[in-house]
Design brief:
Strands 1-2-3 form a 3-stranded parallel β-sheet. The chain has a two-stranded parallel sheet with strand order 4-5. It contains 14 helices and 5 strands. The chain folds into 2 domains: 233 residues, Rossmann fold (3-Layer(aba) Sandwich), CATH 3.40.50; 78 residues, Orthogonal Bundle (Tyrosyl-Transfer RNA Synthetase). 36% of the residues are buried. 51% of the residues lie in helices and 7% in strands. Strand 4, helix 9 and strand 5 form a beta-alpha-beta unit. With 352 residues, it is mostly helical. The protein binds adenosine monophosphate (AMP) and tryptophan. The site of tryptophan has 13 residues, from strand 1 and helix 8.
Length: 352
């Protein structure tokens, strides 16, 4: 039995891309493995955010993942901040991390608009904070954002995970995690399993409905570009019927025809059929027919998810209970590793 762990930030609603490219594949790993799923609220405060929104998003996030098939009976679903050990292990790991490596992380550079050169950052937003009395925005280049990958490594190593399902964009962070595990094992002694990334192929890239050369994303400014798993049948219809295709009205599955290919990929992923076979079925029938059929498939696939989500949000006690049980199981495992790490680091054991 392998230990599978993944985490997600409690931000925004899940898109069809998240569902087909990530959540559905993680859910398939549940049988036969020891699975942990963390909602990383401590990661979520690295950028500017609203505490009230974060609080609300956490339960909505749990409900959406469960509605998408992450069965709380088979996976330990927990909030990062409910388990002692994530930030503690991150501290020990940070003492083995050259800061230059962190400044060079792609996600850090993207989020701060920096070049990757070591820079002390601009603390300007906090100047005169006490005088204005108003909440001040966070410094763009705050320490938390820089140390984000170390905390992520701690999320993984705290459970000695074997397999970590992630999207392509997290590959670099996972490499750092593997380096840190190896460094710790070498500097102290063998402690951590070196985790493997699991990057699923199917549904790996669902593209925007309005610009099929770009990935479907939570934060697209064009609201017709993204299908959310909680969209109503009317919203789904509107978005699919206005999806961008090309001037050739034949339904064929070809790499260069981005728009129609993306729609065929979605159709295929939702029905577990080969996109080419679907294209052959619609041969000579035109876009309107095909899009109408896709609307039916999408509505039918997403309706049970939305219904389950609504039911779960009516039962917040259940969601809290899931988190309580998830944190208890996670904590049990986390204490073991944390005690080992403290021992190896030379910390005196307290009398209990
Ligand atoms: P994010 O929405 O960036 O927080 O990503 C959460 C997970 O969903 C990651 O594993 C991503 O790789 C995956 N994901 C996000 N957008 C898409 C997409 N358009 N197609 C396939 N997978 C996606
Ligand atoms: N950084 C990941 C993301 O943005 C989320 C994350 C945090 C994560 N800790 C993790 C993913 C541990 C896998 C394992 O998607």
């Amino acid at each position: 039995m392998k230990t599978v762990l993944t985490c997600a930030q409690p931000t925004g609603n899940l898109t069809l891309g998240n569902y087909l490219g990530a959540v559905r594949n993680w859910a398939a790993l549940l049988p036969g493995n020891e699975c942990y799923f963390g909602i990383v609220d401590q990661h979520a405060i690295t950028t500017d955010y609203s505490p009230a929104e974060l609080r609300q998003n956490c339960l909505r996030c749990v409900a959406q993942y469960i509605a998408c098939g992450l069965d709380p009976e088979s996976a330990h679903i927990f909030m990062q901040s409910h388990v002692t050990g994530h930030t503690e292990l991150a501290w020990a790991l940070s003492c083995l991390t050259p800061v230059g490596d962190l400044f060079r992380m792609t996600q850090f550079k993207e989020k701060t608009g920096s070049s990757g050169a070591v820079d002390s950052g601009d603390g300007a937003p906090w100047q005169n904070a006490s005088l204005s009395g108003k909440p001040q925005p966070k410094p763009l280049m705050n320490g938390g954002l820089l140390y984000y990958p170390v905390l992520m490594a701690a999320d993984i190593l705290l459970y000695n995970a074997d397999v970590v399902p992630v999207g392509e964009d997290q590959k670099q962070h996972l490499e750092l995690c593997r380096d840190l595990a190896q460094r710790f094992n070498h500097y102290y002694s063998d402690t951590f399993t070196i985790p493997d990334a699991y990057i699923p192929e199917t549904g790996a890239r669902i593209m925007s409905l309005q610009d099929p050369s770009r990935k479907m994303s939570k934060s697209d400014a064009n609201e017709r570009a993204t299908l959310f798993i909680l969209d109503t049948p009317e919203q789904i219809k509107k978005k699919i019927m206005s999806a961008v295709t090309d001037s050739d009205s034949a339904i064929t599955y070809e790499p260069a025809r981005h728009g129609i290919r993306n729609l065929l990929d979605i159709f295929g992923a939702l029905t577990n059929r080969a996109p080419k076979e679907i294209a052959a079925e619609f041969d000579g029938r035109g876009y309107a027919d095909f899009k109408n059929a896709l609307v039916d498939v999408a509505v039918e696939s997403l309706a049970p998810i939305r219904q389950k989500f609504d039911e779960l949000m009516e039962n917040k006690d259940f969601l809290q209970q899931v988190l309580q049980q998830g944190a208890a199981a996670a904590q049990k495992r986390a204490w073991k590793i944390l005690a080992k790490v403290h021992r190896k680091a030379g910390f005196l054991e307290p009398l209990r």
